[in-house]
Write a structure and sequence with these properties.
two-stranded parallel sheet, 5 helices
Length: 144
């Protein structure tokens, strides 16, 4: 099961696209279209984790047409992307220490968690999805 998602940190809305086939440059267009359909004011900045299917000319061109700025985060820095909190939460609720006898059961459990973000899990998400990033004002770099 593939889950492509975007979290709007201002409106606290979740955009989710799922499939059971493949994630590639074509399927990456689906979440971009879903974000654009929200008709948000101004340019939307979408933080991405540098997966190969995100970093190609097809996706970049579509994002440009839809007024979406792609912000590629540094490699190996999931702590900078709020959506990673959602993935960790979803795995814990739907899969951690749980046996699912069939793929359909697993898929339903994941979908149930995602569907509950704005209802069942609202209180947990208000604490989880925050801009709690450590910032450094004056950083001196040491060469090794």
């Amino acid at each position: 099961m593939n889950v492509l998602g975007a979290w709007n940190a201002v409106t606290r809305e979740l955009v989710v696209i799922t499939n059971t086939t493949v994630v590639n440059k074509e399927t990456m267009g689906e979440p971009l279209q879903a974000i654009a359909s929200r008709r948000l004011a101004g340019t939307v900045t979408l933080a991405l984790d540098n997966a190969r299917y995100q970093r190609n000319n097809t996706v970049k061109a579509l994002a440009g047409e839809l007024n979406i700025e792609l912000l590629f985060l540094p490699f190996y820095s999931p702590n900078l992307n709020l959506i990673e909190q959602l993935w960790r939460f979803t795995k814990r609720k739907a899969a951690h220490s749980r046996y699912r006898p069939a793929f359909a059961d697993f898929r339903a459990a994941v979908q149930q968690v995602l569907d509950g973000v704005s209802t069942t899990h609202t209180d947990q998400f208000s604490k989880l999805m925050t801009f709690n990033f450590q910032e450094f004002d004056d950083v001196s770099l040491l060469a090794a």
